[in-house]
Amino acid sequence: MSDAAPLLIGMFDSPFVRRVAVSMDLLGLPFEHRDWSVGRDFDRIRAYSPLGRVPVLAPADGEALIESAMILEHLDDVVGPDRALMPPSGPDRRAALRLMAFATGVVEKGLQVVMERVFRPEALHHAPFVERCRTQMRGALGELERACVAAGDRDWLVGGRMTQADITLACFVTYVHEAVPEPLDAYPALQARHARCEALPVFRRYHVPFFQPDASGAAGA
User: Which of 92, 132, 202, 204: disulfide with 87, CB 3.0–4.6 Å?
Assistant: First the structure.
């Protein structure tokens, strides 16, 4: 088996690519980055994943891994349960999964708002659809706010160390805050926790400000 570092394909302004990069850094797993756009570099990405989506994690040998959830599961398997970023079982795992589900809902609805703005002519924008997406997004943000209030002064949302719940929340909330853009003033506990995560060097290292694509490209998944 080759010792060469795998390729992480995708731009860091994608919240899905970014959470993989942050996770690999925290786990001490090296990677080579390919800053490829799903618009500009669609065919190059499809050589690794026919879906043409990012992130893709491509080892020097073996099959490429697609979809950030699949990649994160693989990373935890590589490092083992003592270092894994997801709790292995029980209430802590369920709590982390619940928080990640709401954070994923936030970013998915935010992406739909962005896609409507970027990919449909203004005359065809459907205001009720956009408002519905914003309502769903804000409902999920409200759940994350309640979780942050419940966590109080604890450093991390679940257990005694950073988990994938913290990483996913920070990366996904950053995206909707910058790209939709959605203000966070209505969610002070979430806003404060998000800011603390984003101030950490490992998050700053992979932060690329949102750059609105043209009609030929969009974020990954």
Answer: 92
Distance of CA 96 to CAs 92, 131, 169, 201, 216, Å?
6, 28, 10, 23, 35
Dist. CA 198–CA 174, nearest whole Å: 8
Rounded Cα–Cα distance for residues 179 and 112 (Å): 11
Q: What is the pTM of this model?
A: 0.94
User: How many Cα atoms are found within 13 Å in the side-chain-facing hemisphere of 184?
Assistant: 20
Alpha-carbon 16 to chain mean position: 3
pLDDT (0 to 100) of residue 62: 87
Burial class (CB in 10 A: 0-12, 13-18, 19+), 155: exposed
pLDDT of 1 > 70? The answer is no
Report the candidate in 149, 171, 151 with the shortest Cα–Cα distance to residue 160: 151
- Strands in the chain per DSSP E: 7-9, 32-34, 56-58, 65-66
Check whether residue 67 and residue 106 sit in a common domain. no
The secondary element (H helix, E strand) that includes residue 20 is: helix 15-26
C-alpha 55/C-alpha 66 separation (Å) is 6
User: Are residues 119 and 162 both part of a single domain?
Assistant: yes
Q: Are residues 37 and 96 in the same domain?
A: no
